[in-house]
Records
---
Amino acid sequence: MKKGLIFDIQKFSIHDGPGIRTTVFLKGCPLHCLWCHNPESQKGVPEIFFTLDKCIGCGWCFKVCPEHCHAMENEVHTFHRERCRRCGKCTEECYAGSLETAGKKMSVREVLDEVLKDKVFYENSGGGMTLSGGEPMHQFPFTLELAKAGKKAGLHVAVETCGLAPWSDFETLLPYVDLFLFDLKATDPGKHKALTGVGNQLILENLKKLDEAGASIVLCCPLVPGVNDDEEHLAEIAGWANRLKNVREIVLHPYHPLGVSKCGRLGISSPLDLKEFAPDETVRRWRETISGATRIKVT
Amino acid sequence: MNPNFEMLRQSVLKMQEGDPWKMFSDRKIVLEQDAFLRMKDLSGLPLARAEATAGILDSIQFDWCPGEPLIGRIHPLPPEPEEKLRNALIWLEKHELTRGPGQTGHCEPDYKRVFEVGIDGILAQCESSAQGGPPEKKQTFQTFQVVLRAFSRMIGRAAETIGERDSVLAESCRWIAHRPPRNFRDAVQLMWFIDAGIQYGDQSALVGPGRIDERLGRFYEKEIAEGTLTREEALDMIVHLYLFINSLCRRGLAYGLMVGGDTVNPVSYLALEALRKTRLVYPGVGICVNERTPHDLLRLGVDIVSEGVPNPAFFNDVVIREGLIRYGVPEAESGEYINSTCVEITPCGASNVYVASPYYNLCGTLLRVMNSEYDSFESLFEAFKKDLSKQISEAAESLNQARKIRAQIMRRPLQSVFTKNCIERALDIECGGARYNWVECSFVGMANFVDSMTVIREEVFRLKDITLSGLKKILDTDFENNESLRQKFLNRYPKYGMDCRETDGLIRSLVDFVVAECGRHKIEPYDSAYIPGMFCWVMHQRLGAETGATPDGRRAGFPFADGAGPAQGREKFGPTAAVRSVCSWSPSALIGGCAFNMKFTRAILSTDEAREKLLSLLKTFLDGGGFQTQINVVDNETLKKAALHPELYSDLVVRIGGYTDYFVHLSKEMQSELIQRTQYSEL
């Protein structure tokens, strides 16, 4: 079995589905959302984080890098990413955590062993495992096997998805998933393409089909002030929740700027240079608008 | 609710800036010298001590203002003239008549008996028991009578202070000065008089209301049924009881109070609710949790901590009872205990337990034995154990000496009267009167020790990258020019709190060893148990300050891990992994107390759902055999602001290692430690 590329396994996740959960973050995503707060999740290969503040100047990375990417220039540690082949040797020697690899190959067994360490917490809280990303459907065979193994081990399995994948994959996965955390990012197809890089036709079709197939659904709505919080989209979030049969909750994900600093550490520029948290007042207004148009719980 | 409460609260905060305790301690030194000068020979010592206690009780005045449902704020004494005080001290030391070494207090007095028979009932028992016995016995009862009469007078004076201004409260005082309490007000008021009397009169520290719900529940339920008391009135009285505690107790200590266990009644809820009203540092309330504890009591506790109040803490009733039974408490009485201040368990109404005696420095011991070379990891561990064993033996010996000296020169007649078996045995608490006479100690820096040993095992003995003496040299320089090595030690090897077998196995060996080693020693009187614990009050900072760098990557002088939890910043995999590490060993033999702090930002606990998840985490910790846990809910921004502008944050309270304090009172190092400590925060 092929290994999966995992960039984080986060325990005590309390905002990714019911109860206390462990969230497995799979690397690689077909979307490129402007506001992406996990920019290290997008590419399907390991990447190097470089945090200059943490560098203690020990010089080990200079010695071990086969491409000589690291150097002291004007007394500052400079990382020549253009030469970097992402071998990760520097990160293995960097105990200060200045250089870190995002993305680790893991087998289904390895991931599951880590997840099962917290089984007692899932049992007592009604929690379980959430597969997130990136886009878990992007590593479909691995995601399928992990969901199967999770179910076999008695776990509640949730999948957080942007919805962009062949319907046949969702259909195959369906029996092994208790809950889909399904993203609704923009209603207008043109706007969806502008904000995420892809259209939303297939995504919305998949949402409808999952609902018809009886899947339990939570609608996850990233909202960015001035970007996708127009009245039409807010109304359509409620509209979708009302039209579908199996939506149990709408969860709003107000914008936060942590992705911006992560971009800097990955050596890429952030497509959205917005450094403010979504104001509480705005979030309250979103919530009220959507709540006013549907009976489904909005959190 | 008393309309003047906020004003009183502010005045108490101001009082705590000084040292209300010292005024009475100083006065007693002078009174003791006077009393000793009057006695013919040493055979009169017990009576002289009792006269000094009575002298203090006679000098206690309580402040009261209209609106207060109870009386109990201590009126400050004028300071003793310095020269007189100094001369008295010198005289007492010269004649070896100081109060002697060792701990005091840390207990719940036996309210049960006085609630049944009243002060006069106990007095009558002392009078009749004094008849016909040997002279020592007669004298002991005489001391009991002297202090009880002064205690009644103290309460009578409180009634005079109130006078016509509140005839109900004044009448209550006049009644309980002699007779058993009739109602809720009488009972709370008498409780406080006993606590204040013992603490100031006998100079026994941190004597408190203990199992408040067990003691007050029946009064509350009867009066509610009869319609003579409302819930709000009862809450107001408990709020004032807390206020009084703060007026008496100087800052930097801890003051225990407990609810739950086998007793859950409306007072359990009020004792928690009162924390919301007072927002003062004392008392540290614990909820005793077992499988019968109602969900709504736990949820109230979680809601209160989520709001940023540093209490309550959650204690494992099952684990603690197991421990008490192990040390000889009958099973039927094993639920009668309190968190005497932080987490040190002492039996209710029957305790002469010395807690926190002493605090052992595990890493200091390790650094000392690292000065030699060893052929294996095991032989290093053996050398460590041998050194620690010697320290434990020496401490046990000095504690036995302390107990002997105290039996000769010290008496605490008022505390004795309110401690089970003293009257039956006709013995002062200092002479073996109390039913339980254990000594509890505590081992500090366990997580740093285990993490250090993990690094040594790998670096020195497995990889052989460095010799032990080479490593010691680097530590002696505090990793000077070796920051990369420090980072390696810190980040390459598994740490306690990350849910990994290597470190969790080491701590089991350490715990087994200290339990067995303490178990080898018997303490005076009656071959009492020497009981280990794993908490630290503020000693992780004090001992850390005097200890050099350690192989886990901790810098010289930096505080050790607090209590039984992972070291600062090393709970990288979040609270579930930390909980699993802490639950990987059995703490039931360590009823000297084990504390485990968890810290969350307020933002993540703002929803009902998140609080239920926190509650589930707590229950899983307790089901898994954890001893005690407490939750700090605060945001880092607040802490940083408070460090910069202490004057604006004088009432910001935090809990560290079973100990509660105002943040602005902490040292700068401790403040930055708190700020640095990992928060399990999510956005």
Note: The longest strand of chain B covers residues 284-289.
---
Amino acid sequence: MRTAWIAIAVIGLCAPARADDDTTQRHLLAGVRAFKDARYEEALVELRIVQHAADAPADLAFYLGPTLVKLGRDREAIDVFVTSRAPRDALTEFYLGEAYYHAQLYRKARGVFAQLRAHGLGPVLDDAAARYVAAVDAVYQAPPADAVVDAYVALAREAAADPIFVGELYDEARLIEGLAPAHHRHAEIVAALAATWNAMGRARDAIEVLAGDGALSIEGDWQLARAYALVGDAAHARPLLEAIAARHGAHASDAAGMLAALPP
Amino acid sequence: MIALFAAAIADLCGPAPAPVAPPDPADAARYVQVGDEARTAGDTRVAAVAYRDALARDPGNVAARDALAALCKAEAASPADDTDALLGAIARYRKGELDDARVAFAAIVARHGASEAGAHLFLGLIALAYHDGATAIRELELARRDPAYDAPARAVLPLAHRDGALSVVLLAEPELDTNPQLLPDTPPAGATTGPRQTDEDLLLAGTVTARPTREVFLRDTVTWRGQRTLAALDFFGENAQAGVELGSGADRLLLRGDFDYDLLAGAPYLLAGGGRAQVRHELGGAAVVASYALRRRDYQQPAEAGFTGWTHAGDAGAIFHITSSFDLDLRAAIARELTADLAFSDVAVGLTAAARARVGIGVRVAAFASGWYASYDGAEPDGELRRDGHGEAGGDVEVDLGDHVLATCGANVVGNTSTIEDFRYWKLVVRCGLAVAIGGP
């Protein structure tokens, strides 16, 4: 579907929309036309109709995310991008970077733009990405204050109703905390991040963050064990769960139960 | 979150949309579904767009028509967005209504909208105005998260690190002085003791300020000026102050008492004390200000005894906030000096102008110019009445070298013309130094 986007856009601009049997395709085309005409609210309405359709394309995020970014609805856009299972491309990533930036997740934005530049962008997008990277780097020339980390943790706690964004906030806090010369709430942040990602089915991301981290709390150990168990890696999950169960402390009974459920 | 997008929909409440041919009630129902979901989520603009799309495909769709009518009826109650709230809070800040502004900025922060970083910046500035260094640092660091506010926050962050319930400033500043005989806080004694003589000196100063409450401050400043060659002019000054700063809305009142004890070449030179009251009313782009000071000076050496007496000084004017980083202070001043020797009692009227500006990050510039005309009460021994014209100008540059270290350079020039030749003089001081400033908690 996505590979045809440019063609759809071009055709959509040239050909009048007409009713036909392919309702989903018609609304998708109308959405693309509206987006190209900068009528983003109309584009969103059309794409919402597509979203409800049984034959909605798997890569709807490719259309829906940028539309939300254009409407300034960055948190929703991030939710759409992050939960999309379709492979991302440079343009989608660029919009994700902008959504992060506008949502004040500056380190996340910097990561996206820097990676895009490393992979190669056209001159216009590369120039824009370079400006975003430079703007964030200017802010973080000096180590971040503890108050900044605290603020993101507080935001994450307040955003509990939006678990996807909670994960993004904790990840931003983790990235900022990583720039500080000394740990500040590190164990708490990575444990909360992993708990959020485990709950969202992003156990592999949780493992990537926690594995090899020598400063984990008991909660961090528990979330790492859960993550291994969730991805079916019993070999790594078992020793962690055994250690947690043996401590007879927090999560000991949960660990014992999970151990019993692990495949041999 | 979506409620933040409950923006105005007046443009969607006009005439019914042009119908799309042929009508398609089934398709209209899909738009109504999207509209209902958006409306439930508080996403009124998208809901209105969807309902209009539905009506375009099915002009008889009652659900779409009623829902759009309900949205448009509620339009008048649409809340303003964060930008308007931020602008409103800034207007209060500029009018000096700091407490009200702080409440408004805090509300913006609580909403975590697009204006949050801007609100943090102003909360930092308000904390700085209240000498709450720790809060100022936290708020300014939070503002810095947004690159748009990084530069203005960084410009004032060092000041926050130097302020607090207890602050200390230490200064070391070599000076070149073309006329060190003109001592601080004295009539031009040097003009009567011999020709001026240029000398270098080292100025060392230390100031400790304690603020037990937001309104009350206690300050002590010790100054030592050691001359390179004119040791008889080595000067030690002790100045103690106690005051209160009271504020209500746009009005500020400063009451301050102070005491001075100075030594010259190790010998008692001056005992002085007095008080000052200043009122200030912020208008937004400017503030009107007026002050009155009463001071008693008791010179300890016979040579200066004739200058002992009371001084009344008053001024009134306005401070114009030309930009957020540039203030211009213009005042008219009047002073009455009553001295033991009538020949030194005078009435002076004059004008002062001062400018303060932040130039880029970590650089501040201050400049002033003043001039006055003085008429003396008593005749000189030869019967001539003394009339003086006096002018002063100066400027200082401060450059932050770190949160607690700054470099300073400045120059002052003073000129006095008089009907009496003994009181015609000029003086130039050029100085550069380093200061360490620490504040907390």
Note: The CA atoms of residues 75 and 103 of chain A lie 7 Å apart.
